[in-house]
Amino acid sequence: MNRQVYEKEHASIISKVLDLELAHDKASMLNFESGENVDYTAYVKLNVAEDIFIVFTLPTDSNKVFFTVTDGNPEIIAFLLSEIERTDLTKRFGMRDTVRFNHEYLIENDKVGVILLPISVSNVLSEITEIKALSGQPYELFLCTFISADDYACNQNFGSDALMDKFSRENKDLISIS
User: Fold this and answer.
1) For helices 160-170 and 149-158, angle between their N-to-C axes, nearest 10 degrees
2) Residue 1: which pLDDT band, with cuts at 50, 70 and 90?
3) How many CB atoms lie within 10 A of CB 111?
4) Per-residue model confidence as pLDDT tens digits over 47-56
5) Quick one: residue 174, left, alpha or beta (phi over 0 = left, psi -120 to 50 = alpha)?
6) Which residues contact 162 (CB under 8 A, 6 or more apart)?
């Protein structure tokens, strides 16, 4: 995809996020370079008392957008989401797949990775029902929910249904990183 096309695509995605009721009226964009590749991400502060952000990828080589709503450091979280997008180019993640990280920031916060869920489970993101590329094709939209080692083990040993049951029983907070 050439630069002009993906800039228009990125503007369309950012616009959808800024249209959310709780979204602040400004997005911050970040890019992460890895060799010849550049990954683009953005984050938007929510209009709430705490520092809570919507962080998301801006794809250039993918038809997927990875989102999270977090109280974590938005720049570190953006980097982690860009890593998910890059890994997805070869692994092809689907709903309820987990992605494990060995990142200092997550370790400090007792997290080991994410599980990919539909964005409709997020009260903040549920207004976004679809985002279409300029070609008219809809993007696949994923909510990246950060998980602990215990959550990860539950998913690996008993499957994603068991993890979803665990989330329900424990009233899982989908936002807090710590």
Assistant:
1) 140
2) low
3) 22
4) 987 899 999 9
5) alpha
6) 154, 155
Centre a 10 Å sphere on the Cβ of residue 72 and count the other Cβ atoms it contains.
22
Cα of 98 vs its chain's centroid, Å: 12
In whole angstroms, give the CA distance from residue 67 to residue 2: 23
Q: Answer whether 46's CB lies under 8 Å from 53's CB.
A: yes
**3 pLDDT above the threshold of 90:** no
Angle at 57 between CA 59 and CA 16, to 5 degrees: 95
CA dihedral 129, 53, 70, 66 (to 10 degrees): 40
10 Å CB burial of residue 121 (0-12, 13-18, 19+) is middle
**Distance from C-alpha of 108 to C-alpha of 86, rounded to nearest angstrom:** 24
Q: How far is CA 160 from the centre of its chain?
A: 18
Looking at the chain, the whole-number percentage of residues with pLDDT higher than 90 is: 83
pTM: 0.94
pLDDT in tens, 5-41: 888 999 999 999 999 999 998 999 999 987 778 899 9
